[in-house]
Amino acid sequence: MSALSARVLEIREHRHRIAVAGVSLHADPAGALYWPEHGLLAIADLHLEKGSSFAARGQLLPPYDTAATLERLTQLIALYAPRVLVALGDSFHDGGGPERLSGIDRDAIKALQRGREWIWITGNHDPDPSDGIGGSFHAELHIAPLTFRHLPTGAHGEVCGHLHPAARIAYRGRSVRRRCFAGDERRIVMPAFGTFTGGLNVREAVFCDLFGTLAFTAHMLGDDRLYTFPAKRCLAD
Amino acid sequence: MGEVKRKLISTGRGIWREGGLHTLYISPLKALAVDIARNLEIPVREMGLKVRLETRTGDTPASKRQRQRRDPPDILLTTPEQLALLLATADAPYLFSSLKRVVLDELHSLVTSKRGDLLSLGLARLSALAPQMTAIGLSATVAEPDDLRRFLMPQPIEGERLADLVLGQAGAQPHVQILDTDEHLPWAGHSARHALGEIYNLIKTHKTTLVFVNTRSQAEFLFQELWRANDDNLAIALHHGSLDVAQRRRVEHAMAGGKLRAVVCTSSLDLGVDWGDVDLVVNVGAPKGSSRLLQRIGRSNHRLDEPSQAVLVPANRFEVLECRAALDAVAENAQDTPPLRTGALDVLAQHILGRACGEPFFADDVYDEVRAAAPYVALARADFDAALDFVATGGYALKAYERFAKIRQGKDGRWRITHPRVAQAYRMNVGTIVEADMIKVRLVRSRTSGALIPRGGRLLGEVEEYFIETLTPGDTFVFAGEILKYETLVEDEVYVSRSNATDPKVPAYEGGKFPLSTYLAARVRALLAQPEAWRALPDQVREWLEIQEWRSLLPGPRDLLVETFPRATKHYLVCYPFEGRLAHQTLGMLLTRRLERLRMKPLGFVANEYALAVWGLGDLAPRIERGELSLAKLFDEDMLGDDLEEWLAESALMKRTFRTCAIIAGLIARRFPGEEKSRRQLTISTDLVYDVLRKHQPDHLLLRAARADAATGLLDVRRLGEMLSRIKGRIVHKALDHVSPLAVPVLLEIGRETVYGEASDAILAEAADELIKEAMQ
User: Fold this and answer.
1) What CA–CA distance (Å, rounded) separates B596 from B666?
2) How many other C-beta atoms can be found within 10 angstroms of the C-beta atom of residue B292?
3) Crossing angle, helix B345-358 and helix B701-712, to 10 degrees?
4) Which tens digits make up the pLDDT trace of B464-518?
């Protein structure tokens, strides 16, 4: 069975369900959330053009990150065929990102937007709506009972990004660190989707502050499934 | 040395000044440079010579370094990194064009690493700036003197040029013996716990003893055990590379002052510096190579006319064989230093940027200059151009970064840096030594329940970050001679407290793990194949081999013995390549992949210096006999093709190798001590860069550099390849009904040795399962 058809099967069986404010969302191991009732697919922190952003400051990182991120996004969209796509902010690494897009990558974004509603939530890295990249721009999107926004506020029903959660598990003398969803039943922080995005450990104080306690869950991204651990079980870096 | 003649020389900025340096002395250790300077100053002063000599290392104050560039001394004693820095300034023509001599000390230890590549390029530049200059190399341990002779001379396009060879008078033949222990010789392990009393007695009956071990964790262990036995309160100290510098200096001073009876140390004391009146060297564990051993033995009795005294203490039975082979090699004064390297491309990239920081250049000129360096003599123009392209715009097939170029070709055809900031970044990043990320270890009082841990205890030293990553709070380990408990991590420091545990989790940090040299490995195989030579071995070892011969068989010197046998609920396959742990680990990774594909369901493997054991649930022996599984095919060289490729994609070792290349080549900046963790979050992970490059530009310069390193470094792929080709058609299979004597040592490693961090989903799945089990109880 190919990885793709395995994924489709899992979608049918609704295996990786995460409940937020009573809504059952499908969590994809690529780092996306799908809301079947609305045909809505959400991804966070694409950080497109991060490579060129570093290059402009003297670190000539490979210029392939945007294409790689869009390629993974293309696969997801082919899989779920969402009616609405929500990019939860920091879609570009900096305000100049849209301008630096290559023609090929710009066309790829346009192709992805065809036939669906495309919502750019504005983030702290890309606060100003940009022309020439299609879609519509919003500070946040409310579809009861959920609110999609970039910066976490801790509000009930919040689906957000910004923090790039990652978790670490040590077992038998080896340690694995992966991106993850961090959530409790009221709200969820999505992992960063971008190819060059690093992760912030869920044991950093900011997560505890956000959830009020350590009683939240890390859903770590595996190769073809999620692995769920209580935050208490995860280790600091 | 006489009067130094001076003349007017251009500073490179169009200013003419009186002459620069006369002699340059370069050493691998800054401590050695400082030591030599001190020893030179005495005769210079006594003879009243008008010669100024100064040192220049990373510790030299910035003001003095600046003054040295304006007003250089006659003799400068320095390191390869400082030479690179000086060459990358506009002052280089002024500083070096009057140069008469370059002295390269302990040359053998430089040429086998990337530091040697950098030095060779610096030397080539010096030859261009000062054609009259003579280079002199010094070395006490050389297998192939011609390699070093080539290294010293600018090489012509065709043929080769050799420096003159001056052989020093050989010293007295050293007295070396293997400790003939009365105790039971262990089957496995490296602790030499059995010989502790005997080592202690040796220390007691000598004035000053150096006790060499191979790894820092062995040093920690032995030091602790010796103190436990130290009823006479002898002054025994510990010295290894991750101890705090202040503590190391204290030990060195006490040593020089004759205040110590013994120092337990790693290769941190291998080189040059004279540490007072040592009358005995004890080498615990395997010698690994005859040159290494000779170097260590030479630490005792520095007078040439008296023989050095040394005792080898093998920690297990295989090490007895290795010690015996080394002893025979020492008697023949046989050296086994590795052959000269092919120059690395990441180092070349660093050098090209340094050249541009010095002065604008024509690509053709630098290409010719670089090929005068022995390691780069065969450098293809295409590779040079790729390195130049990498320095300029990252070397990407997708030409996206022209506007961000670091160096650019001007209308005059010369390459120059685009901004002074580029030179500044180069200076921060110069050199080829990339340390693993280290974390400071600080001693605090133990946490009483709930209370906050007090900050700011005593600093004990540093350990690798990846070691700490495998610990959970409460775990114990040995460090700085004490058993410590891991309390918590605060920013970039790990807080530990004293523990009264008696069975610590021994440190896994592996400073100075050298593989067995190919030369010694061949001697050990020859020894095994020659029963008449076993007479020289201790009784316990001889019996062990005799039973092996009777129960199974002993491989011929060029053969590979493969044994299969059941044990408990599992089935084992054990082979004996004798190629060192690193090559065996790579072999283990690749064999288990192949067995998995053949649906033979391997479960795990473990490697030591001599053997590799793979186990699974199915019995392989009948399938080998029925011809369903061909050992010739299983061990075929083609495993270095697709199987290796697949493994490299996810190998943590390969990612570590890539990171080193990326830092040396200047793609990403080094981290400096004191940089906070929060800043680290902003730096890019080289693992992500590695993944992206593999996918989008597999022939990128940095991936090629990392592959070249994998051939000899942590993966030792080249050695594995040589072994696979050696054993072609020479595999001997022996099916047994239970474990053979030769297999016992490697099986005892199970559970002690873990393969470094191939972190995968499997671990997450196991941890998740365990959690479920816990919850269901």
Assistant:
1) 40
2) 24
3) 130
4) 766 666 566 777 777 776 778 888 777 667 888 888 776 555 544 443 456 678 8
SS3 at position A137: strand
Nearest to A30 by CA among A225, A162, A199: A225
Measure the CA–CA gap between B149 and B163, rounded to whole angstroms: 5
Q: Residue A96, Cβ neighbours under 10 Å: how many?
A: 14
Query: Token digits for B212?
Result: 């060499």
Helix axes A3-13, A65-80, angle to 10 degrees: 50
Neighbours of B659 (CB within 10 A): 22
How big is the CA angle at A137 (ends A134 and A138), to the nearest 5 degrees?
160
Position of tokens 């053979």? Answer: B740
Residue given tokens 């995005």 in the structure block: A197
Contact B401 A235 (CB under 8 A): no
Radius of gyration of chain B (CA): 28
Residues 6+ apart with CB under 8 A from B148: B107, B108, B111, B137, B139, B142, B163
Give me A233's structure tokens: 């079980």
Q: Check the CA dihedral B517-B518-B522-B523 and report its sign.
A: negative
Neighbour-count burial of A38, counting CB atoms closer than 10 A to its CB (0-12 exposed, 13-18 middle, 19+ buried): middle
Residue ranges in B23-91 assigned as alpha helix (H): 30-46, 62-70, 80-87
B256 burial (CB, 10 Å; 0-12 / 13-18 / 19+) is middle
DSSP B51: -
CB pairs under 8 A between A and B: 125
What residues of A are in the B interface, CB distance below 8 Å? 50, 52, 54-56, 58-65, 67-68, 102, 168-178, 195-196, 198, 200, 220, 222-223, 227-229, 233, 235-237
Q: From residue B617, how far is each of B481, B573, B741 by CA, in Å?
A: 42, 11, 22
Supply the pTM of this predicted model.
Answer: 0.82
Which residues face A148 on adjacent strands?
A141, A159
Nearest residue, CB atoms, B685 vs list A68, A176, A198: A198
Report residue B186: phi and psi, to 5°: -65, 155
Q: Name the residue facing A227 among B398, B469, B765 (closest C-beta).
A: B765
DSSP calls for A71-126: HHHHHHHHHH--SEEEE-S--BSSTTHHHH--HHHHHHHHHHHTTSEEEEE--SSS
Per-residue pLDDT reduced to its tens digit, B694-705 = 999 999 999 999
Q: Which of B679, B701, B761, B769 to probe the A interface (max A CBs under 10 A)?
A: B761
Residues (pLDDT < 50) of chain B are 1-5, 449-450, 507-512, 673-682, 753-759
Both tokens of residue B286?
């395997």
Calpha distance B517→B495 (Å, rounded)? 38
DSSP H helix total and E strand total for chain B: 30, 25
Q: How far apart are CA B124 and CA B126, in angstroms?
A: 5
Q: How far apart are CA A17 and CA A226, in angstroms?
A: 10
Strand order in the sheet with A23-28: A17-20, A23-28, A32-35, A40-43, A84-87, A117-121, A136-138
The residue assigned the tokens 């983030």 is: A123
Say yes or no: ipTM exceeds 0.95: no
Burial class (CB in 10 A: 0-12, 13-18, 19+), B506: middle
Q: What's B639's DSSP letter?
A: G
